[in-house]
Specification:
By secondary structure, this protein is of the alpha+beta class. It is built from 13 helices and 39 strands. The strands form seven sheets. Strands 6, 7, 8, 9, 11, 12, 14, 15, 19 and 20 form a ten-stranded antiparallel beta sheet that branches. Strands 29-28-27-26-23-22-21-31-30 form a nine-stranded parallel beta sheet. Strands 5, 10, 13, 16, 17 and 18 form a six-stranded antiparallel beta sheet that branches. Strand 28, helix 10 (554-565) and strand 29 form a beta-alpha-beta unit. Helix 7 (455-471) runs parallel beside helix 8 and helix 11 (585-592) packs parallel to helix 12. The chain is globular. The chain binds alpha-D-galactopyranose. Residues 338, 368-369, 413, 480, 482, 528, 530-531, 547, 550 line the site of alpha-D-galactopyranose.
Length: 725
């Protein structure tokens, strides 16, 4: 059993495929953290540690050694607020007396095979109970009677854990949850670097790496969505860790709203990491009998460096997060009209796109923004989900039939959560958007945010979407979301519950996504939020792919895709070849092939030579699909300022095939540059597809490939396919 409880020592030991996590029930029911790291067979960690430590001024528990134990200097699993530990707390509950002192101690536990799901929220899943084991620990505050259940699931096939918390009010008094962290890990050293993914519109998920110092370093969002600015991902890695070596601990929150991750270095040298819903702007009323379920957090440990950590995330998410039937089914190769036409298109024009797409071997046409209401610019019509028949030259069904008759599937764009200031919906229901009384609402892209915390609003919007999808043979939906939330409040909530709006909004989005995916299980969903502004595991639970960025410049895309790959698998990364001029079609295709692949342009503008390149790319899409979508990623050269080129490769799980890609970002590379491959079997021999040359895996990884014969000008690229003899 990967989870063991040693009842003599009162120690829990949780082993995943590659890691161990150990904590104990200490005196007075404190849950004391002992170890998290590479797998260890025994549990006697912490044998020489001072049991019961205190320092001058830190509050102590008198019942332990007459005041020799302070929670302030002890690694803890689930520390409360205002009860002797001054570090970031995991929970703060304001009680009926008006204070928020909270102190949770062990009550009971149970261990069982499998993993629970979270009602109404995304969470990792197993398809068979043998794939994971779960520990539930119930803790209670003895004064208020408030309880929490801590969930720890370990996966048998990946070095990963899922963590969660449910807070329960079994008392007869109403209390207020002010703060709830989904996961806390205390380390006994801060000898780590912190890696996070920062960004902005059109430059999402750039990698930031900095040493932990005697500070609290953290990332957060209070924008209503996980945001372009900080992804809900963080990693603590050994100072000397690189792609291949060293310990790496990854954290990711399965949530699409306001979040926080903090790494707080303490004077004794340890670091406390917490991750959960951002407490700023959050409070939840817990009436007698009420419960609050916090979003799930994922932790990954690898002792094979940052690359190893990424590969664990990729495998975990492919197997245990993405629910869609498309997770492991080949997706249609699509063309989207947005960059070619904006909203200025006609049905006839899109039919010409589909005709040319058919000749090229493309499977699906996606009609982006502009097909509904009076939508000729971004100033109008969001919320008016009625087909603009003038634009399409007739009913949507007829138009889709014209596309389908060509043998092309049809996909469509929605932005369900939004309403334009200039729309019939807003004129009819001005109170349906997020707002607070008496305060002017900020506008962004000329739109407001619909109050998805309200069921009536969700029902109305989903009713329109469902009708359009059900009646028009729609195979794909791009779900967009193009602004953050401000002046946040809901007309449907009483004033003491206004601070629930942010979270209720996210739950509302999940509710509609849940209805959509269960009503239309064959529908392929692609997430989008002004590009990659909501690229998180919460969304991936419903949407197997997310548009990485509105930036389709291939060279810029390199760093976006590298950053995204730290946590998210290639199969989720929406990547298209566009009309962008920075590189030729071959290089653009080589870069987009890393993701879901598709086109974002007018296919009628291709020259005859370009037509041949595209046809070849379509063949390659099919040839390499399984390798890229199911294989393991190795980042070879990162596209940062220290490098002239970027390189990466995919290796099949059985190590029998590999695809290596490299792109020159800046010329000036020296002669005789050798690219060392990774992840191959050193003992196997591989033939390179194009040249027929045969090399051992050992040669390719240790000596490397000399790149002299490949182009070295800006934007040049190559791709090499290897398979075993
Ligand atoms: C966002 C998306 C784009 C496109 C436009 C349409 O910006 O990121 O891909 O769909 O909206 O308005």
């Amino acid at each position: 059993m990967p989870i063991n409880y040693d009842s003599e020592k009162k120690i829990f030991k949780l082993d995943s495929a590659a890691s161990s996590y150990v904590f104990e029930i200490f005196d007075e029911g404190y849950l004391v953290h002992l170890y998290y790291g590479a797998y260890i067979p025994d549990n006697n960690v912490g044998m020489f540690r001072d049991k019961g430590m205190f320092v001058s001024e830190s509050p102590c528990n008198f019942k332990i050694g007459e005041g020799s134990f302070s929670p302030d200097v002890t690694p803890l699993e689930f520390s409360g607020e205002g009860s002797g530990d001054f570090r970031n707390s995991c929970i703060a509950v304001r009680n009926a007396d008006g204070n928020n002192v909270t102190d949770m101690r062990y009550v009971s536990h149970k261990i069982y095979p499998g993993k629970p799901s979270l009602k109404g929220m995304p969470a990792l899943f197993v398809t068979d109970p043998s794939q994971a084991d779960t520990l539930e620990v119930t803790v209670r505050d003895s004064v208020t009677g408030i309880e929490a259940v801590l969930y720890y699931t370990v996966f048998n096939d990946c070095g990963a854990m899922a963590r969660g918390v449910k807070v329960i009010n079994p008392t007869d008094k109403t209390v207020y949850l002010e703060r709830i962290m989904s996961c806390c890990v205390d380390y006994d050293t801060h000898d780590y670097d912190l890696i996070t993914l920062y960004g902005k519109w059109s430059k999402e998920r750039s990698v930031e790496r900095s040493p932990l110092a005697h500070l609290t370093q953290g990332i957060s969002s209070k924008r209503g969505s996980s945001s372009h600015h900080h992804n809900p991902f963080a990693a603590l890695v050994d100072r000397e860790a690189n792609e291949d070596y060293g310990s790496a601990y990854g954290f990711n929150l399965v949530y699409s709203g306001n979040f926080v991750f903090d790494a707080e270095v303490e004077p004794f040298g340890g670091v406390r990491t917490v991750m959960g819903i951002n407490p700023e702007g959050f409070e939840w009323t817990l009436e007698p009998g009420g419960e609050f379920v916090a979003p799930e957090a994922v932790t990954v440990y690898s002792n094979e460096g940052i690359g190893g950590m990424s590969r664990v995330f990729h495998k975990l998410y492919s197997k245990h997060l993405i629910r869609s039937k498309w997770a492991h089914v080949k997706r249609p190769l699509l063309i989207n009209n947005w960059e070619a036409t904006g909203m200025d298109f006609t049905g006839d024009q899109l039919v010409t796109f589909a005709e040319r797409a058919k000749e090229l071997g493309i499977d699906m046409l996606v009609m982006d923004d502009g097909w509904f209401g009076n939508r000729d610019s971004d100033k109008t019509a969001l919320g008016d989900w009625f087909v603009n028949e003038n634009k399409l030259g007739g009913p949507l069904g007829d138009f889709v039939k014209r596309i389908n008759d060509l043998g092309i599937k049809f996909g469509i764009w929605f932005e369900p959560e939004m309403v334009s200031r200039d729309s019939d919906l807003y004129r009819a229901h001005p109170d349906w958007c997020i707002h607070v009384p008496g305060r002017e609402k900020s506008i962004a892209r000329h739109q407001y945010v619909l109050d998805f915390s309200r069921e009536d609003v969700r029902d109305y919007i989903y009713g329109l979407m469902r009708g359009i999808i059900a009646e028009n043979n729609i195979a794909y939906v791009k779900w967009d979301c193009n602004r953050y939330l401000s002046e946040v409040g809901s007309a449907a909530l009483p004033k003491e519950r206004q601070k629930e709006t942010f979270h209720r909004y996210v739950l509302g989005v999940y509710d509609v996504l849940g209805r959509l995916t269960s009503d239309f299980p064959d529908l392929l969903l692609e997430g989008c939020a002004s590009g990659g502004g909501r690229y998180d595991p919460g969304m991936l639970y419903y949407e197997p792919q997310i548009w990485c960025s509105d930036n389709t410049d291939p060279i810029e895309r390199l760093s976006i895709q590298f950053g995204t790959s730290l946590c998210y698998p290639a199969s989720t990364m929406g990547a298209h070849v566009s009309d962008s001029r920075r590189a030729g079609y071959e290089t653009k295709g080589n870069i987009a092939l890393w993701g879901t692949f598709g086109y974002e342009l007018d296919p009628n503008t291709f020259t005859p030579e370009e037509v041949e390149i595209v046809k070849n790319q379509v063949n390659e899409y099919h040839k390499y699909y399984a390798l890229i979508h199911e294989g393991e990623l190795y980042r070879l050269i990162t596209p940062d300022k220290n490098h002239f080129r970027a390189a990466w490769m995919f290796v099949s799980e059985d190590k029998n095939s590999a695809l290596v890609t490299s792109v020159v970002m800046r010329k000036q590379e020296e002669n005789n540059f050798y690219l060392k491959l990774k992840g191959l079997d050193p003992e196997k021999y591989y033939v390179e597809d194009e040249s027929g040359e045969v090399y051992s895996g050992a040669l390719l990884m240790n000596a490397g490939l000399c790149l002299n014969k490949y182009g070295r000008m800006d934007g040049d690229s190559f791709k090499l396919y290897f398979r075993t003899l």
